[in-house]
Amino acid sequence: MIVDVNPRHPAWLVNWRQRHQSGLSFWLHVVGIPLTILAVLLAGYQLYQWRWDIWWRPMLLLGIGYLLQYLGHLHEGNDMGEIVLIKRLLGRPYVAISPRYQK
User: Fold this and answer.
1) C-alpha to C-alpha distances, 36 to 29, 43, 45, 67, nearest whole angstrom
2) What is the residue extent of each domain of the chain?
3) Stretch 35-55: mean pLDDT
């Protein structure tokens, strides 16, 4: 998949599309990102309700969401955003865009 970079799109979206060019990676993220957001919202709601007995529900959603995103990056051949940030802070080399998609 070749990413069509539209200058009207915000820079963060252009960057995200460049890092997720594989169709499989893109769709794994389309499912995984909302699951992680839902996990955070559910955890907040459960804490508000003081429901510590069902802590596993947001953790399960978070785990599945991150697993799907990890599999997408594994297929894509690049590092996850959080890993890129940590490696950058530590001065370590990282792969932001998969070598097969670099110009």
Assistant:
1) 10, 11, 14, 10
2) 17-101
3) 94
